[in-house]
Batch of 2 targets.
Target 1
Amino acid sequence: MKCFDDGLIFLKSSERGKCFIEYIPSENAWVPRILSSAKKRPFLSDPKYLLYKGFRVADTSDAGINLMYLPFDEKASIPRFTEAARHPHIEEQGYVLYYTNQCQFNGKYVPIVEQTASENNIPFKALRIETKEQAQAAPSPCTSYAMFYNGEFLTNEQFNDKKFLKLIQSK
């Protein structure tokens, strides 16, 4: 994967199967930011831990996702979301998924959701983000996985077939 060639480091804890950290040199980052929320949400950083370590909320999206930063210099400018990330919305109808291959699980679960949608006649489109420019222009603060329905951001949480069908039934 090209991201590893650019210096991506992925470390998974042996303590908890879902605990990991990944980072990349900022000059190669597709979207150099750390994402959290007011309360702990799946696949986002723990806000309590980040606040404890001195991080601050720099910006908040309409989806309740916070951009956090660690100030090294009080005079430095505070990072901000792009307008598209701050107000996640698309024009397309049906279910639309923006994703990258940065997350190792997308290679397994995106095709499962595509197949499930096809088998159940669910309007679905998957758009893989492949470049830094696409990631920086994405319509969501979450570029690894962002599911929309009828233009509105739903979640950054990955789905298997059962979770996707449960989501469909709730709409």
Target 2
Amino acid sequence: MKTRLFLGLDGGQSGTTAVIGDQTGRILGRGTGGPCNHTAAAEGRARLESAVRDSVSCARGLAGLDASARFEVACLGMSGGPADKVSIIEAVLNADRILVTTDAAVALSGAVAGGQGTIVIAGTGSIALGRNHERLARAGGWGYIFGDEGSAFDIARQALRAALRMEEGWGPPTVLRQRILDSAGFDNANDALHAFYGVAWPRDRIARFAPLVDQAAQQGDAAAAEILNYASLQLATLAMCVRSQLWTAEDPVAIAFSGGVFRSPLVRDRFQSLMELEPGTTCGPARLGPAEGALLEAYRAAGLTVTLSDERPAGSRDER
């Protein structure tokens, strides 16, 4: 019997992950590539092509497949939306059917293993997305200028604001100022601010300061703790907005969380405690990753219902 191949891919602001599975739900290979969220400029298109090719090639190699292997269905969840990426992906991917959707949609599918529930994603950006038996609902996800509340970029932005206020004398002392300057290589917060407006500091690079805030908060810095507490509250608000759109107050609802911001125990614990104040609400990490969620959506499009399993030798797994 010929093996039917399916592809799930999560293309984000920080990196790309591809997962290949067969018709039984057995995962054959995983691979990673670079970020692929911007395509407006020529370098953005090249970055997207490279990220898709590299991640799929790596997964295909670990699966023992050659370059001619063709996917029956490929589902790709892309940061920034699918509209400007479909034609580029169709030109580089060898598949009978290609579905391009958002990274939030595949993250939700992975979080609830294809079922009903809500996910709050807080990485470089942030969004909440939920699905009941009838429809989808969302809150947030407006991008770094108008939204991304509680995201890593937002946490880093708030930290820089605290550093600037301290430097100018109208904010409380905080270790965040010196730690950001040391990490970024600047002498003062004002110079850092001007540099961060330039092309050399895209938002995913600025977002990498977020762990500094978590470290400072755990060491007792009040300004850092306040930033993380507010981030938790904003993420909880997004989750509850989605919950109220899809379910009644009496309905039991599972809320999952995903993304690098939730690596902070302060954010994670505060978020969970806020969620579980609501009767019938349970809260925990996503059951599966977004690339696996994309793979489940590929199976769904083919009319297959499967349970994912990973039977490859441990040495061949991509441990992220």
